[in-house]
Amino acid sequence: MGERATLVQFSTAFCQPCRATRRVLDEVAAMVPGVAHVEVDAEEHLGLVRELGVVRTPTVLVLDAVGRIVRRAAGQPRRADVIAALGHAL
């Protein structure tokens, strides 16, 4: 978990947009102090996928400092959208 926020990415091995999403989230996490990016293999964590209602990959959850989900998006995000979503967590 990041000190200020965490970007949680649900991915699968065959997902092409997941690779681009990984790059975007890594870049944003490197730009914003206290933000971490965690990637979860959806196929290996099916219980968590069901619990959180993840229906496609990539799905990105933005968690605040205490782990509450403050934003959620499915599909490949734009960098500006990720930064804006972080504003709700910081």
Task: Describe the structure in your own words.
It is a single chain. This protein has 90 residues and is of the alpha+beta class. It is 34% helix and 29% strand. It has three helices and four strands. The chain has helices spanning 16-31, 46-52, 79-86; strands at 5-11, 35-41, 59-64, 69-74. It has a four-stranded mixed beta sheet with strand order 2-1-3-4, with helices on one face. Helix 1 links the parallel strand 1 (5-11) and strand 2. The longest helix has 16 residues, at 16-31. It is globular and about 30 Å long. It starts with a strand and ends with a helix.
Question: What series of H and E elements makes up the topology?
Answer: EHEHEEH
Q: Give the low-confidence spans.
A: none
Q: How can the largest sheet be summarized?
A: 4 strands, mixed
Distance between the termini: 14 Å
- Quaternary state of this entry equals single chain
Which structural category fits the helices and strands? alpha+beta
